[in-house]
Amino acid sequence: MSPKWGSPVTHLVAVLVHTPAHSQLGAPLTYLSAQPLAPGTLVRVPLGRRETLGVVWDRSETNGDPALDPARLKAISAVLTGIAPLADHWRQLVAFAASYYQRAPGEVALAALPPQLRDLSERQVQRRLQRKSQPASAAAPGDPSPAAMALSAEQQQVMEQLRTHDGSFVLFGATGSGKTEIYLQSVQELLTRDPAAQALIMVPEINLTPQLQARFLQRFAPLFGFDAVVSLHSGMTNPQRLKSWLAAHDGSARIVLGTRMAVFASMPALKLIVVDEEHDPSYKQQEGARYSARDLAVYRARLQGARVVLGSATPSLESWHHSRPKADGGRYLRLHMPSRIGEQARLPLVRRVDMNHQPRHAIIAPPLLDAIKQRIAAGEQTLVFLNRRGYAPVLQCGACEWKSACPHCSAFRVFHKIDRSLRCHHCGFAEPVPRACPECGNLDIAPVGRGTERLQEHLAQLLADVRRPGSQTTDNPQGAPVHVARIDADSTRHSGSLQSQLAQVHSGAVDVLVGTQMVAKGHDFRRITLVAAVNPDNALFSSDFRAPERLFSLLMQAAGRAGRDAAISGQSEMWIQTHQPKHPLFEALKRHDYPAFAAQQLLDREAAGLPPFSYQALLRAEARTQEVAQGFLAAASNAASADLAQLPGFDLITLYPAVPMVVQRVANVERAQMLIESPSRVALQGFLAAWHGLLHTIRQSEASRGLLRWAVDVDPLAI
Ligand code: ADP
Ligand code: ZN
Ligand code: ZN
After folding, report:
1. 552-607 pLDDT tens trace
2. Ligand 1 atom 19 nearest Cα
3. CA separation (Å) from 84 to 37, 40, 109, 277?
4. Is the CB of 185 within 6 Å of ligand 1?
5. In angstroms, rounded to a whole number, what is the distance separating the alpha carbons of residues 246 and 125?
6. Confidence (pTM)
7. What number does the ligand 1 atom closest to the CA of 181 have?
8. What angle, 0 to 180 degrees and rounded to 10, lies between the N-to-C axes of helices 88-100 and 293-304?
9. Which tens digits make up the pLDDT trace of 355-376?
10. Which of 104, 297, 353, 692 is the most exposed place for a label (fewest CB within 10 A)?
11. d(C-alpha 517, C-alpha 423), whole Å
């Protein structure tokens, strides 16, 4: 095709493509097309020597292109005609995310589309679409939906508020207060009332999606058909993801369940977004465009006129601070469900064990061990929670200074006894444990500290003489030894292993479960009546100002695993082993008093000028040496003071000095960062936008030659 300038059949179209991160080619590129193409249309275009997927964008955003030479423009290769153009609001969401998180719109847009759409040719996509258009399976006949439960008084009140208000909500509900039932009934009301409407339900972890999907399918497949509920997360195969994405895009999927990536799903009739466990750090993407899916969900809801419900027993302090119990100008309307469902289903009793008064070096305090034994005798289960996997965090020589440092990182390698390896949790470098000290040859090298693997071993030893109570069933014979199981990232490396391990716990075959935060989250363990946190003190003294917030929510969530069965929760308990029994965090936890904890934290944050009373961004740099990494940051800081001093709001910006990151070296790469802070989000955004061009220029300078990467992290979660 040889298009002629001004020829009536030739049109200029702007197309967004994925250009390499940080290349200045952020703006859409201009192509020729035989027909006019609506913004949002998916196309394939030549880019360099490749052909790639692109999204037709607004012409006005192509930086003007005053001297476009039509003779040099290339033509679009193909239009994906079977897929309706992406809606305006979807493009607005992408544009906002790109500008807010300081990335190229093309990167954000293309990352938001399913991988297969990017990789398949136009013809292959057509074939997928044909396959998909085969008749969908209808609602399961004669299989009535399990009746929606009669709601508790608290649930009814919340439903009423959701019906009568628009906008954004924080659903502050205790674990087991029936939040999920609220999600289900809100979705049901919406989908029944509006035959086109769609709902998006987000959860923090892939592991939680099967359970949730089962619950939604059971409720909604009989009403709206099996194809009405789809999932979207990175654990799915690419064909599955494409299928779900297409179903959401054409509206046939009424309900999308997914992890953070689902916030970008194309859902033309989206009317309700739920962000469950909204405080969870995994809603923040930690690479590429470092977006917060929770914050984007709130923005997106506004774009599409949808309601958004942020659910949690321990809302993030940001969400809490901006929510009000009455619709009087707070950003969110706060809905409260303090009680657990069921007459006797009280929250577990929290008991603190003062480790200062326990035998020195005790890992499990004797009274806790007795409590565990009592639960075993009663046929109940215990969850022992330790947020550190592996056997021991470090291996040490008894004769010299040697420790199991990682040669590539400024961190120790963790001892994993199960395969006798030393593994670095930062770079992945693994080696067999040496027979003797590599420095002095001493044979006496010993583990220091404790991870879940060692705790499991220790508990099995402590409980070696204990026998399970008898039962009629063969798999639980009288006098069998106690079963101590472990669930963490190591024990669940193989696909399907988490599900089978959870099934074991549910079946009652496990007496004591040792686990990391992985088991503290979400799972509905009916027989666990005792939860113990063996060593939570570290977070009290962390340099990360968010550590107490995270600890509190983790412990509340872990406590929420206990006593979920109303019939036995009368006696459920959570034990905290601590050297700081009087710490206000534990005092608040004992009373299950999140508002008191939040109030105290917010006072501290306000006094220190920390979020949510200020807004932060990090500039990160990586290089082979700290000098180069910090040099880039220092140059960036100097350039800001020199060139941006006249910028409106610059006086509201604080640029902190460049410092090494906490784990300064990972995989032989030196890492440094610089904090930028402002009491005004608008000022911070304005500054970052103006700074961006300068950063590119500094990157090109001679001094930055050794720089490997740089990135801006807006609203960072870990400083
Ligand atoms: P959350 O999401 O707040 O932890 P769930 O929605 O999972 O709580 O509810 C906890 C348990 O209570 C579940 O087993 C659920 O089926 C049950 N449940 C929720 N609402 C009701 C209700 N109105 N009547 C009876 N049982 C309920
Ligand atoms: Zn040694
Ligand atoms: Zn390493």
Report:
1. 999 998 888 877 665 665 688 999 999 999 999 999 999 999 999 999 999 999 99
2. 178
3. 11, 8, 16, 33
4. no
5. 11
6. 0.91
7. 6
8. 140
9. 999 998 899 999 999 999 999 9
10. 692
11. 20
